[in-house]
Request: fold
Amino acid sequence: MSLEYNIVYKAENVYDNPVKEARWQFLIIPEENYNQKLEAITFKNSMEFPYEFSTNAYGFKTIRILAKAPFEAISFEASFKLLKETSNPFDFILPINQEDEYSKYQQLQFKVDHEPFLRKTPLTTLLEHHINFFEYQQDQFVFENLQALNKWVYEKIFYTPGATDVETTLDEMLEHRQGVCQDFAHLFCAISRKYGIPCRYVSGYLHQGNGYFGDSQMHAWTEAYIEDVGWVGFDPTNNLIANENHIKVAHGKDYSDCSPLKGILYSKGSNTTNHSVQVHGQQQQ
Amino acid sequence: MPKEDSTIFSSYQRDPSLFDEIYDKKGQVKEVYKTLFQLYGGHSIPDYMTLNEKARSSFFNQGITFQVYDDKQMQEKIFPFDLFPRIIDGKEWEIIEKGAIQRSRALNLFLWDIYHEKKILKQGVVPLELISSSENYLHQMMDVDPPGGIYNHISGTDIIKHNDGKYYVLEDNIRCPSGVSYVICNRTALKRALFGVFNHYETHTVTNYAENLLDLLESVKPHGADVPNTVVITPGMYNSAFYEHSYLAKTMGVELVEGRDLFVENDFVYMRTIKGPEKVDIIYRRIDDQFLDPLEFRADSSLGVPGLFSAYKKGNVTLANAPGTGVADDKAVYTYMPEIIKYYLDETPILNNVHTYHCSRPKELAYVLDHIHELVIKPVDEAGGYGISIGNRLTKKEIATVKKQIQEHPRKYVAQPIMSLSVHPTYIDETNSFEQRHVDLRTFTILGKDKDFVLKGGLTRVALKKGNLIVNSSQGGGSKDTWVLK
Reply:
């Protein structure tokens, strides 16, 4: 069975002073993978500047625009039509022995292969006393531990839009235990990596039809690596295993690899940006 | 011939514990220096002062200046230049040249490996932690094939001669090593002041650097660029090495650009010119990785070119040196150079490495903490001689501070025995005479596709303060013309 999604991403930028030159890069196109099929893309901007497709360093598709005439405000609108296969996230066989499984994660070859997603980054670094709140259970499977971590992060942070911004560190956020989906994902990544389980930050869209947390912007969750299974998505903001409501765009080490909009301006003064996202889903046969 | 005691060398004092470059073991002036010694010895002190002034004005006239960071007043300085050249005979040079190429080739293979199969890490020859803790290990470069397979096109290898008479490498600089323009300007200045001395020696030229640089860069041009267009990109005129950037562009006959002069469209790089956009194929970049492309690295900087990395990843442009090369010039990686050379080339190192203690290893940390007074402590990731502590120059209080710093961040420090840099007669303004001063040598190596080049010469840096061992220009060092004999 599959779902058909219509996703609309909008951004509006207003500048204090006229901008003569600018360049934007959007990382907002849903990834094409085994259960996501992109059927159509449209992209427009109010200034009718030409745009092109490129890829970022991790191979995800980007849209780039080069401004060629002065302007003071600009808006962008992208829409995507996507087919998403529903799948059972629990559809795999657990290994036989917990200790054997965990010992694979300790091997040098494994650590070298997964180094990028085992690394501490400025956004996924925690003080020692914050890490120790969550305890890894060696007598349980990696998957079970990750489920426990998902729940633990979900209970640790109160979902509070506007409580943090992209520069807030995890330790600062944990002082008040208030955060948004990026904070949930970063905290999950930090702890998973600390215990040697490769984990990547995922950016995408959430279909909120079922009352999930997330606001009308892009969502963030994680993918952790389970030996003999592969990358499994965990959404700690909603204490869920990622499912047919999660539409992946990109992954990276943390938010800085995945920010949906990067702009380079050659202008003085400040600017304001507004984003909005709408996701409509419909069941297909 | 005039006796030396009637001349400028009359008051030259030799400290027997130091290795003096111009004397042999028996205390005689070495064969290669004899003629020069006699020629210079014929000058009186006032003659010499006039000549020195002449050389100095040559630098101002050529506009060769640099700026020192952290100076309260940002001001342009000239790099102090010493008229008495250093001479390296052909045989001795051959060892340096082969050793420098061996290191550059080994580092290039190491970089290819850690950005592809990672065999050296999987086999535990180089510890994973060393690489994964380095901010210069760029994940963006994973499985990217640089054009021609070259990462470290340009290397600056810092070499010293210890009091055992052997050469040792202190570090391999493979980010944006600078100084080559001074090598060429030192030669020009010496020729202007004392042209006659060159008649007595057969010295290799140093002015062929730019043509070789361009030739080797063009050998790693991107696929499909038949007549490649090369540019030099600079962070701008406020950079301490701006003079060098403009010098290299001028002598290669290519454009000097800043980030804003370039743009990327459909993953190709173009330069804005009055005749319209012109495609760029090879960029000799003198800006650091983190500033190369604000869309992929630091977003708060406009020094770079938005979209440059995706053009690079597609193979449409050559960047020299390749992004992510800096991971291999970390001082902690340096300490594994003998293993790296053995692993990739199955050779023994031609140039010695200084023995290094890793503070990240508990046993070695204990040794370092007990022997600070006889060691040099270096932070692993600082360039330009910043943050170095020399154990036997520290007060008790300073030793305690250094110990504390090491204990707090053991991974950040390595320690080495205090090497005794060789000394060379150097003209000292304050005393109007020649005195012994410590020197090192930076050599410049270029790697291309199936070819390489080492500049026959190099930058001999002089620590002008008496007894000082740090020769970096940012720490008040000077330099000498360096002759490699045919």
